[in-house]
Amino acid sequence: MRIGVDIDGVVSDSYPFWLQELNRHFGKNVSVITDYQMHLDFDIPKEDINDYFVGNAERLLSMPEVVSGAKEGIETLLREGHEVIYVTARTPAEKDVTVRWLTMKGIPHEHVLFAGFSSKLELVKQWGIEVFLEDYQVNAKLIAEGGVPVLLLDASYNQEELPTGIIRCKNWDEILKGIQAIQSKKVPKIV
Protein backbone atom coordinates (compact mmCIF):
# COMPACT_ATOMS: atom_id res chain seq x y z
CA MET A 1 0.00 0.00 0.00
CA ARG A 2 0.96 3.61 -0.49
CA ILE A 3 1.02 5.16 3.00
CA GLY A 4 1.06 8.89 3.65
CA VAL A 5 2.81 9.94 6.84
CA ASP A 6 2.72 13.35 8.51
CA ILE A 7 5.98 14.38 10.19
CA ASP A 8 5.33 16.66 13.20
CA GLY A 9 3.53 14.76 15.94
CA VAL A 10 3.71 11.45 14.06
CA VAL A 11 7.42 10.96 13.32
CA SER A 12 9.02 14.01 14.96
CA ASP A 13 8.09 14.43 18.63
CA SER A 14 7.91 18.17 17.98
CA TYR A 15 5.25 19.30 20.42
CA PRO A 16 7.03 18.60 23.74
CA PHE A 17 10.09 20.46 22.45
CA TRP A 18 7.98 23.31 21.07
CA LEU A 19 6.09 23.55 24.37
CA GLN A 20 9.37 23.93 26.26
CA GLU A 21 10.74 26.50 23.80
CA LEU A 22 7.53 28.55 23.66
CA ASN A 23 7.28 28.63 27.46
CA ARG A 24 10.87 29.83 27.69
CA HIS A 25 10.52 32.45 24.96
CA PHE A 26 7.15 33.89 26.02
CA GLY A 27 7.70 33.54 29.79
CA LYS A 28 4.74 31.18 30.17
CA ASN A 29 4.16 27.99 32.13
CA VAL A 30 1.81 26.04 29.87
CA SER A 31 1.95 22.37 30.84
CA VAL A 32 -0.04 20.79 28.00
CA ILE A 33 -0.94 21.78 24.46
CA THR A 34 -4.69 21.27 24.24
CA ASP A 35 -5.27 23.01 20.92
CA TYR A 36 -3.36 22.59 17.67
CA GLN A 37 -3.65 26.38 17.41
CA MET A 38 -1.02 26.80 20.13
CA HIS A 39 -1.47 30.56 20.45
CA LEU A 40 -4.77 29.79 22.21
CA ASP A 41 -3.02 27.77 24.94
CA PHE A 42 -0.34 30.44 25.33
CA ASP A 43 -2.88 33.30 25.24
CA ILE A 44 -0.82 35.33 22.80
CA PRO A 45 -1.59 36.63 19.30
CA LYS A 46 -1.26 34.05 16.53
CA GLU A 47 1.12 36.38 14.69
CA ASP A 48 3.55 36.31 17.64
CA ILE A 49 3.80 32.52 17.55
CA ASN A 50 4.04 32.54 13.76
CA ASP A 51 6.86 35.11 13.89
CA TYR A 52 8.66 33.04 16.52
CA PHE A 53 8.39 29.89 14.39
CA VAL A 54 9.61 31.66 11.24
CA GLY A 55 12.57 33.20 13.06
CA ASN A 56 13.55 29.96 14.80
CA ALA A 57 12.52 27.33 12.24
CA GLU A 58 15.96 25.71 11.97
CA ARG A 59 16.17 25.02 15.72
CA LEU A 60 12.48 24.14 16.18
CA LEU A 61 12.55 21.60 13.34
CA SER A 62 15.99 20.09 13.91
CA MET A 63 16.01 19.54 17.70
CA PRO A 64 13.00 17.27 18.47
CA GLU A 65 13.47 13.58 19.10
CA VAL A 66 11.70 10.83 17.16
CA VAL A 67 8.22 9.75 18.30
CA SER A 68 8.60 6.47 20.19
CA GLY A 69 8.33 3.55 17.77
CA ALA A 70 8.13 5.72 14.62
CA LYS A 71 11.52 4.79 13.12
CA GLU A 72 10.95 1.08 13.75
CA GLY A 73 7.36 1.33 12.51
CA ILE A 74 8.42 2.97 9.24
CA GLU A 75 11.16 0.37 8.77
CA THR A 76 8.55 -2.38 9.32
CA LEU A 77 6.22 -0.85 6.75
CA LEU A 78 9.01 -0.68 4.19
CA ARG A 79 10.09 -4.30 4.90
CA GLU A 80 6.48 -5.38 4.36
CA GLY A 81 6.59 -3.80 0.90
CA HIS A 82 4.61 -0.62 1.59
CA GLU A 83 5.60 2.70 0.09
CA VAL A 84 5.97 5.53 2.63
CA ILE A 85 5.39 9.08 1.42
CA TYR A 86 5.80 11.91 3.92
CA VAL A 87 3.24 14.70 3.52
CA THR A 88 3.93 17.58 5.87
CA ALA A 89 2.38 20.99 6.45
CA ARG A 90 5.91 22.34 6.57
CA THR A 91 6.75 24.73 3.75
CA PRO A 92 9.10 24.03 0.83
CA ALA A 93 11.51 26.54 2.44
CA GLU A 94 11.88 24.01 5.30
CA LYS A 95 12.88 21.15 3.00
CA ASP A 96 16.61 21.15 3.83
CA VAL A 97 16.17 21.14 7.62
CA THR A 98 13.48 18.46 7.32
CA VAL A 99 15.53 16.12 5.14
CA ARG A 100 18.61 16.68 7.35
CA TRP A 101 16.56 15.76 10.45
CA LEU A 102 15.21 12.56 8.83
CA THR A 103 18.74 11.60 7.75
CA MET A 104 20.29 12.45 11.14
CA LYS A 105 17.67 10.32 12.93
CA GLY A 106 18.15 7.41 10.50
CA ILE A 107 14.56 7.51 9.27
CA PRO A 108 14.19 6.11 5.75
CA HIS A 109 12.79 8.68 3.35
CA GLU A 110 12.46 8.71 -0.41
CA HIS A 111 9.49 11.04 -0.97
CA VAL A 112 8.93 14.10 1.26
CA LEU A 113 6.14 16.42 0.11
CA PHE A 114 5.60 19.91 1.52
CA ALA A 115 1.98 21.06 1.56
CA GLY A 116 2.80 24.34 3.29
CA PHE A 117 -0.40 26.31 3.62
CA SER A 118 -2.28 24.17 1.07
CA SER A 119 -4.48 21.18 1.83
CA LYS A 120 -2.73 17.87 2.26
CA LEU A 121 -5.70 16.22 0.53
CA GLU A 122 -4.54 17.51 -2.85
CA LEU A 123 -1.17 15.75 -2.44
CA VAL A 124 -2.85 12.63 -1.02
CA LYS A 125 -4.98 12.34 -4.16
CA GLN A 126 -2.17 13.29 -6.54
CA TRP A 127 0.10 10.59 -5.13
CA GLY A 128 -2.58 7.90 -4.84
CA ILE A 129 -2.11 7.50 -1.09
CA GLU A 130 -4.28 4.68 0.29
CA VAL A 131 -4.03 5.33 4.04
CA PHE A 132 -2.76 8.36 5.96
CA LEU A 133 -1.08 8.76 9.36
CA GLU A 134 -1.88 12.12 10.96
CA ASP A 135 -2.15 13.91 14.31
CA TYR A 136 -4.03 17.07 13.36
CA GLN A 137 -7.74 16.37 13.46
CA VAL A 138 -8.68 18.99 10.85
CA ASN A 139 -6.35 17.39 8.28
CA ALA A 140 -7.54 13.92 9.30
CA LYS A 141 -11.18 14.89 8.70
CA LEU A 142 -10.47 16.40 5.27
CA ILE A 143 -8.48 13.36 4.16
CA ALA A 144 -11.08 10.91 5.48
CA GLU A 145 -13.86 12.89 3.77
CA GLY A 146 -11.79 12.52 0.59
CA GLY A 147 -12.16 8.76 0.88
CA VAL A 148 -8.77 7.85 2.36
CA PRO A 149 -8.75 6.10 5.76
CA VAL A 150 -6.78 7.93 8.44
CA LEU A 151 -4.99 6.60 11.50
CA LEU A 152 -4.88 9.48 13.99
CA LEU A 153 -2.01 9.34 16.47
CA ASP A 154 -3.49 10.26 19.84
CA ALA A 155 -2.38 13.63 21.25
CA SER A 156 -3.54 16.12 23.87
CA TYR A 157 -4.69 18.49 21.10
CA ASN A 158 -6.84 16.02 19.08
CA GLN A 159 -9.40 14.75 21.56
CA GLU A 160 -12.56 15.63 19.64
CA GLU A 161 -14.99 12.89 18.66
CA LEU A 162 -13.88 11.06 15.53
CA PRO A 163 -16.00 10.81 12.40
CA THR A 164 -16.19 7.75 10.18
CA GLY A 165 -12.96 6.99 8.36
CA ILE A 166 -10.62 7.92 11.21
CA ILE A 167 -9.19 5.44 13.72
CA ARG A 168 -7.45 6.72 16.86
CA CYS A 169 -4.15 4.98 17.64
CA LYS A 170 -2.34 5.41 20.95
CA ASN A 171 1.11 4.50 19.57
CA TRP A 172 3.00 3.13 16.58
CA ASP A 173 2.18 -0.48 17.49
CA GLU A 174 -1.50 0.38 17.10
CA ILE A 175 -0.74 2.20 13.84
CA LEU A 176 0.87 -0.97 12.42
CA LYS A 177 -2.13 -3.05 13.52
CA GLY A 178 -4.47 -0.47 11.96
CA ILE A 179 -2.62 -0.67 8.65
CA GLN A 180 -2.84 -4.47 8.70
CA ALA A 181 -6.59 -4.25 9.36
CA ILE A 182 -7.11 -1.77 6.52
CA GLN A 183 -4.98 -3.84 4.16
CA SER A 184 -6.80 -7.08 4.99
CA LYS A 185 -10.12 -5.45 4.03
CA LYS A 186 -8.70 -4.43 0.64
CA VAL A 187 -7.32 -7.83 -0.29
CA PRO A 188 -10.00 -10.15 -1.66
CA LYS A 189 -10.14 -13.44 0.21
CA ILE A 190 -9.66 -16.54 -1.92
CA VAL A 191 -11.97 -19.35 -0.91
UniProtKB/TrEMBL annotation:
GO terms for biological process: deoxyribonucleotide catabolic process. Keywords: Hydrolase. Signal peptide: none annotated. It is an enzyme of class 3 (hydrolase). Its EC number is 3.1.3.-. InterPro entries: 5'(3')-deoxyribonucleotidase (IPR010708), 5_3-deoxyribonucleotidase-like (IPR052419), HAD-like_sf (IPR036412), HAD_sf (IPR023214), Nucleotidase_putative (IPR009206). Pfam families: NT5C. Gene3D superfamilies: HAD superfamily/HAD-like. One of its GO terms (molecular function) is 5'-nucleotidase activity. It comes from the Bacteria. The keyword Hydrolase applies. The active site is at residues 6, 8. Belongs to the 5'(3')-deoxyribonucleotidase family. PANTHER family: NUCLEOTIDASE YQFW-RELATED (PTHR35134:SF2). This is Nucleotidase. It comes from Desulfosporosinus metallidurans.
